[in-house]
Write a structure and sequence with these properties.
DNA-binding; homodimer; 2 domains; globular; 11 helices; Arc Repressor Mutant, subunit A
DNA sequence: GTCTATACCGAGATAGAC
DNA sequence: GTCTATCTCGGTATAGAC
């Protein structure tokens, strides 16, 4: 028989982790929950449970649900990498642009949570949305605009404005991965092979001349 | 002086409406609230307040929040119009396709709530999403696929699969309107002129040869 | 059919033992 | 730092007078 004292095991208690690990686990769990249900729909109880932690630990480590949300977004953008800085004379501008698009789409395939969180906030004005745009989206939008100007100046690229290119990349490009649950129910080919095909499809729209296949690491 | 009996006016009571009007007002309010905050984020209190009604009237007219959500989606799809049925030999298949795309995008510009609701559900599997796909999205996806096959058979249209065409229309095409709050904060030209330009942009991607401007009613 | 009052639940946040 | 207990608030839904 099992002794009574060992029966009363805590429901979700794991081997004690270092505080930094608890924070990291909470951030990873928050990305999934915020990306699945939006800010209002996600609950700190569920986030904590997914991380194997207790709900009050969220307030201890992140002060509030709002701070946890921002930390989650910050961490996902950090994972995406720094904003590409313009290097005027350096190398093939078209190849630099194509590399940026491929990098972003591959990240979106690996971490669909970021684009989910962004799109779940995009439909209504809010302080969160204003912060998201000012802190993260606007700088990247500027970098993409500069890169696209260089592409067009070199004579390559489709006849699209920088705004249209941004929307092709972030809407057509990224929602393929962010909206996977819906697209899966709709049928269609999906999976590793489909990822490469989708990246090629995006590049074929932006750079009709080619540049869709080189350096397929 | 105002008499005491007239001072005690109910907070939000309006002139008494017919029951059908209350239902219609609740549906319109629900479209806005569900489209802005998602299913979980929307509250029946706010929906009722926006419709100038009382919260329990939602349960009376629609039984539950879930039923109200489905009725809202049904009504928006009814506004969009019936699923186009294939007419094999009839007329210019390319023009029929272009007309469908233009109609959908103009509807999306006038009623961004539908695409907002769809995209807010698209990131996580749920009974609601399964119903949405089976009841509404799959039939329209089938119709678009048939129309696109006819376009390609006629030798026109870009080199894109039917899945890719669906995503160009619903992601790149419709999110331009659904995500207006975010795109507005990001800058860029928006407004009536921008709507026509965006429709032309979508068609230029799908039908590179032309067909972007005719019958601009 | 409409409204007031309220039941009931789960949310985020906090206090205090450990 | 972690965990239990609990506070307060806002959510959906229901009961019953009108």
């Amino acid at each position: 028989m099992v002794r009574a004292t060992t029966i009363a095991a805590p429901p979700l208690r794991r081997t004690r982790r270092r505080p930094a690990d608890v924070s990291a686990d909470l951030l990873a769990a928050a990305a999934v929950e915020f990306g699945s249900h939006g800010y209002d729909g996600a609950s700190t109880r569920r986030i904590a449970a997914r991380a194997g932690a207790h709900q009050p630990q969220i307030n201890y480590h992140f002060t509030s649900k709002e701070h946890l949300w921002r930390a989650t977004v910050d961490q996902l953008f950090a994972l995406l990498g720094p904003v590409p800085t313009p290097t005027p004379g350096a190398g093939d501008q078209v190849e630099l642009f194509a590399r940026m698009v491929r990098g972003f789409l591959r990240f979106s395939a690996d971490h669909p949570e970021l684009n989910r969180i962004i799109n779940l906030e995009a439909t209504a004005s809010s302080p969160r949305l204003e912060w998201l745009v000012a802190a993260h989206l606007a700088p990247r939008r500027g970098a993409v605009g500069a890169q696209w100007a260089a592409v067009r100046a070199s004579g390559a690229g489709a006849v699209l404005t920088a705004d249209e290119v941004w929307e092709v990349i972030t809407s057509y490009g990224a929602l393929h991965f962010a909206n996977e649950p819906m697209l899966h129910l709709l049928g269609g080919d999906r999976g590793p092979t489909g990822t490469a095909a989708h990246v090629a499809s995006v590049l074929s729209i932006l750079l009709p001349g080619g540049h869709g296949s080189p350096s397929h690491q």
